[in-house]
Every structure is written in structure tokens, then in C-alpha cells.
Amino acid sequence: MDLLLSALDILMRWDVALALLTGSVGGVLIGAIPGVGPAVAIAILLPATFSMDPIVGLTVLLGIYGSSMYGGAIPAILINTPGTAVNALTTYDGYPMTARGEPRRALSLAYSASFFGGIFSVICLILFAPVLARVAPYFGSREIFLAALLGIILMVVAHRGQTLIAGALAAFGIFIQTIGLEPVKYTSRYTFDQPFLSGGINLIVVVLGLFALSQAFVLLTSEDEKIRMTRLRGGMFQGLRELARHPRVATVSASFGVVMGMIPGVGEFTAQFMSYTYAQRSSKRPQDFGNGSSEGLIAAETANNAVPAAAMVPLLALGIPGEALTAMMLSVFYVHNVVPGPGLFQNQMDFVVALYLSLLILNVLVLVFLLFATRSLIQVVRIPNRFLGVCILTLSFVGVYSLRNSATDCVMAALFGVLGYVLKRLSMPSVPIILGMVLGGIMEVKLRAGMARVKEPLDFIDRPVAFLLFLAIVLVLIGHFRRVLRERAEIKAAERGALKSGHRFGQMLGRRRGRFVKDRFKLVRARHAKRLRALKDLF
Amino acid sequence: MPTERERRFVGPRRAQLIFALFFVVVSILLLSQIGSQTKWVEKSKLFAQPRFWPAVGLGGMAVLGTMHLYLLPWRKVTRYDWWELRKWTQVLEFALWFLAYVLLVPMIGYLPVTLVFVPLLAWRMGYRDRRMLGLSVLFAVAVVVLFKGLLGVKIPGGAIYEYLPGALRSFFILYL
């Protein structure tokens, strides 16, 4: 109780209240505009939050992160275009509902499901926080190194069909974080004697390039789309009643969101996929999924909104971000000399609970805002793509230039912007670069510290948590290689099948050709014989 | 008809080969420079060597990039790949717009440059009507007021502001 009161004390400030309001409303707006997304907004706002208190800055960023998915459901349901990437599954059942004249029901259900997911995860994590505080001290340098390694491996393995290039891009991230002056022996690494490289490549410059500038380039080179908007009439409260009729789907989906959110490198997509599959399998009407099923919509929206709070767990407890957005938030901690990790849970538990409470309040604010303001809010969907590109390009300048007032940073951000654009054109992920940079830096420091007391290789995993993490890494790798081998066997079988059928098809064509030739020869021979007979008769 | 490998490939075909080749060549070139660009410190463990992590990063890039290249289902560069490459170069124009904006702000000042930059780029993108141009001017003012005036982000005043009279000069440097 004391903990809760001291956490509330941290939040009882006008600037925190303003941050909550700005974050929640701003996040919904950003989420509702297809083509912007929370990553772009957080990347742009990041340097602006450095001058704020950690709790204020983090509340704004958390607000954008947590509420953008609410907003992302609006274009997903009304115009079949997800506002943020994680709302893609919402289009499956949300848009068919709009198509059959129930947009209000779909939106209201999406808001209610999102609200339930958000609140459920925050409550789970507040209850779970004392356990985390007890477990966190068992994480020393070796354990944090292994957890970061597990995070990178999970993130790479999660990119199915693109594992190799995701791994290569993560390695690229690890490499670029090593550029500059090495902090222990003070030797330069890959600076090519250029002074601007001595300070290293800033994470925020890379983030702004890969997320904000690349998105601006994508929008500036695309065409404006004509949007036909559905009119909304009536109240938005019916979703809350409908959600109460599906408590099982909502609870299981939120649980998937919490668990998947806590595992670094996994995130919303896996949580959504698992909860949607569960909902479909356990439904009495599985045939409705993909055609406007309320259960499908609940599963998708509940799971993705349960993730943001859970994603803060590895960040706060271990200092390890699980995905790009929390990686960006890590820099806010570093700027204010607040070191996330086991120490934070032991010494500043009230700060952690305050963050969770702010997420709780944020969800309530967003729901109230959306229930009353959706009809006006949907107008933002109409902003033309290329104009949005102009806006993002202008805002990116604030993000990059305000960091160090360096034109070199801007040139570097532009280069990363072009790289991000190329990756987007090739449908390759850019998140591995960011996580490689952040986790690579953590791994370098922790491995050096961890190895200082290790005499034999097996000493590295002689502590229980280190051993469990090592076991998890081995299991993930075995699972992945088994899947790769199975897929290779499938491809070979399919190719062999294609070869055989191709062979048979060729033989069949050959036989048909032979038959045609034979028939034709018969005809020609008969004609010639007839002419010969006629010639003989003549003489 | 696409083969099974082509069918299962995640992403479009265009320019995959060119990108993979470029990636591998750059990683091998960087890896070849590891001796001159990093140092091996005597009496230090392998994991504490300044060379260790660049080697991990570049080694990973080279090995995984080569495997990705080897497993690509295509071996020939087609004209579609070159068309895609041309498409990539189109964004250089916008990168130049961005860099011009960056270079002009310290000289002319944040507000004046933004007031010209946003409507000009909007004009370039084909928005010629008065409503969109008005919106772009409004957006430019809002960005400057919000970020520099209210949030106080660190953007220096333009060199041109030095010619303004006393109080106006400090106001412009601080807020616009």
C-alpha cells in the first residue's frame, strides 16, 4: 500500500498529467493516420523528451506507444488499412463488419477489447512486480549477457523466411555500435581517421533515419489514395456489453499478450497470431473468422494492447529492450542517468509502479477520449500520403538536428533513411539493426564484466539463472534448426514432385506428338498413294 | 512458372540479388580492414579485446550475408532489378531537400526556412491549391512554435537574426 501511495505521489504533478493527456491523445491521432505509426512519432519526439524529467518523458513516450494501437484500429476497420503494423489482423474481421454496415459495432468492440487488454496487462504486472523484484537480483553480468543474446536470437528467429538476412542486419547493428572510440582501452575502431566518427554513431540518428526519414521517403514517392469514409451514427458503448459476452477469449488473448510481451524479441505479432488461432479453434463459429467475427476482433485487439506494458518488463527489470520502441525508450533512461535493471526494481520500485499506474490511467483516458471523439477523429485518415511525407520530413529535422546541432548527424540520418527505404522496398526488417545496436552494446559491456571471474568456459553457466538462459538459447536454436531442416525437406520434396510431374508431362506431350505425326504420315501416305494410282491409271 | 523456392521467398524478387551482393561485398571489404582499423591489446583476454566485437559484427554480416546470397533462388540480374535500382535513386532528391533544409536553418533561421521549405516541398509534390498551401504554412508555424517556442528544443538561431534590433534579436534567437 505504501508503495502504491508513493507511486501515486510521483504521478501527482501537473506536468505528468499534461504528459499523460498529450501522450494518449497524440498516440491515438498518430495511430489513426496510416503511414505514421508510433515508431516514427517516438523517434521524432525522443530528443525533445531529454529535457524533461524521466517520468514525464517516459509517460509521453509510453502514452504514444500504448495508445497508438487504439487509434490504429480506426483506419483498419473503416478503410481496410491498418493504422499501425500491428493492426493488420484487425482488418480481417473489422473491415467485413464495416462492409456489412456495422462500423460502429466494430470500432466500439475494438476499443473495448483494447481497453481490456491494456488494463489486464497492467494489473498483471503490478501484481507480478514484487516477484520480479525478488528475481531481478539473481541477474548479474553473465545473466544479462545471456538474456540479451537470447533476445537477439529470438528476434532473428521470429523473422520466418528471412532469418539469414535478419541475422546479418542484427550483426550490422552490432558492428555500427562498435564504431568510434572504445571506452576501456581508448583505441579507435573503424573511424578511418575521421573526427566525426570518433564519437560513434548515435542510436537516435540511426532510429530517425531508419524509421522516420525512410517512412517520409516511402510516402513522398507513393501516390495519394482516394478514401471513401463510412459515416458513424449513434453511441460507442455497445462494445463493452459485447465484450462481456466473450470473457474467455478476452482473458486468454490478454494473457498471450502479457507473456509474449515479456519475452524479448517476440512481441505483438506472435501474441496476436496465437490468440487469434486459439479463438478460432475454440469458437463455436470458426467459419466466421475473417468474415467479421466479433471473437476474432477481440482476440486481435486484446492481444496487441496487452503487449506495451509487458514489453516494459525486460526493459525495466534487466535493462534489455525487446523491440525497437522500448530500445528507443532506453535512451531516455540513459540520458537521465537512471540505469534500468535489477537495481531499479530494488531501489526505485515506486518509480516502476508509477510507470505502470500511468499506463493504467492512460488506458482510461484513451477509452473516454475515443468513445466521445471518434467521429471527429476519423477525419485525420483523410490526410494525403505525400503531404504526410512532407510533414514527417520536416519533423525529422527537429529530431536529428536538436540532438547535437550537427549537420553530420543529419547526413548520416539521411543515409540511414535511404537504407531504411531500400529495406522497406525489399520487405526486409529494419528492427534487427536497432536491436543489434542496443543489445550489442549491452552484450559487449556485460561479457567483459562477466568473463573477469570466469576461469573455465563452464563457469559461465554455473549459476542457476545463467544455466536456464543458456538452456533456453540451446532449445531455441535446436527448434529453429529442426524447422529449417523440415522446410528444406519440404522444398526438396516439392521440387522432386515438380520434376517428376514435369517429366511425365514431357513424356505425355512426346506421345501425343508421336500420335499426331503418325496420323499425319498416314494421311500423307494415303494421299500420295492415291495420286500414284491416278498417275498409273493415266498411262 | 515460379519454382518452390521462389514461391516460398519472403518479399519481392526485384533487386534482391543486387542488395545481397552489395551487402556481402561491403562486409568483406570492412572485414579486410579489421587489422588496420582496430587494435589487439597485449595481456588482455579475447573477450576484452577492442577487436572482438567488430569482428563478431562483421563476421556475422559476412557469413550470414553470404548464406543469404547463396540461398537466393535467383542467379541472374534482370532489367526489373535495374528499374528497382533507379527507383531507389529517386529518393536521393528528397534526401537532398532534407540536407538543404539542414544547411539553411543555421544561416537563415528555423522559422523563415521552415516557412519556405514546407510549402515549397508541398508545391513540388503537386499540391498547388490554396487550401493545401495554406495548411502547409500553418503546419510550418505550428512546428516551430511547438518545438522551439514551447518545448525549447536545441535549435540555434539563424545567423541572419544578428542583424535584428536588440529585444527582437534575443526573442528570435530564443523562440523562433
From TrEMBL, chain A:
Top-level division of the source organism's lineage: Bacteria
Pfam families, per database record: TctA (PF01970)
Spans traversing the lipid bilayer: 12-33, 109-133, 139-157, 164-181, 201-221, 315-334, 354-373, 385-403, 423-443, 464-481
Domain DUF112, first and last residues per copy: 18-435
InterPro entries reported for this sequence: DUF112_TM
Record's keyword terms, sorted: Membrane, Transmembrane, Transmembrane helix
PANTHER family: TRICARBOXYLIC TRANSPORT PROTEIN (PTHR35342:SF5)
Protein name: Tripartite tricarboxylate transporter permease
From TrEMBL, chain B:
Entry annotated with the keyword Transcription regulation: no
UniProt keyword Ubl conjugation present: no
Pfam family, one: TctB
Domain of life, per lineage: Bacteria
Domain DUF1468: 18-156
Keywords linked to the UniProt accession: Membrane, Transmembrane, Transmembrane helix
Ranges that cross the membrane: 15-31, 52-74, 94-121, 133-151
Name this polypeptide is given: Tripartite tricarboxylate transporter TctB family protein
